[in-house]
Amino acid sequence: MTTKLIKIGDAAQLLGVSIDTLRRWDKASTFSSVRTGTQGHRFYRFSDVEFKLNSSTNHRNLALEWVQSPNGFTLNPQIHCETRDVFQSRLETLQYQLGRTMPIDGIVSLAIAVTGEIGNNSYDHNLGNWPDMMGIFFYYDEKNKSIILADRGQGVLSTLRHARPELKNSVEALTVAFTETVSGRQPEVRGNGLKFVRSVISDNPLSLDFQTGNAFLHMKQHNNNLFIQEANTTIKGCFATIKIEKNQ
After folding, report:
1. What sign for the dihedral angle of Cα 58, 15, 2, 40?
2. Is 27 a domain residue?
3. Which of 9, 13, 97, 131 lies in the 20 to 30 Å Cα band around 183?
4. Which residue numbers delimit the HTH merR-type domain (predicted)?
């Protein structure tokens, strides 16, 4: 049986990454291409792309790789919201799509509200101060009913220190962000909206994973306690997964 090959540009579009990222993966032998012709152009087996695309953790891992990478890499514009306007437009589209497929009263609006709060935080607290790549990673994993957000911004510790310079590490900063009202000058006020996120998650069939720096938080419905600990890896900015629980 003939193996179907597709061009590198088509593979990049399907996977949600740039052509340069595919070349880097190929060079590192983490996702290999097929070289054909006298000039050795890169092609990809459609079966390989399909397998990677259908992996339930593909986009989550891609977002984590993006925020863990020292210099980042170019994302496909379909999952990269460079500006707040793009994010808001895609958030409204997602709300419409979820509203047509989920029978759970009110949960769609609440999930969108939490997503909007976390996503808008990224723009609010990095305005004019993005360390390298501006904008956020935004993707909905339909199979797992999970919304994935990530940014390569300053992170919670750096932005909170403008108002709370005594904070020592990301674990302390994340705890303050989800539990205390922080006063300070804009855009240094961080965390006030995250207490709204906490209340919504604890009262509804939703769960949240949130990481900033080396601090990781997990919380879910019927549990207002915050589980915050040091993560095994350190990221730039923030990473969040909001999940609509399947058993509801």
Report:
1. negative
2. yes
3. 131
4. 5-50
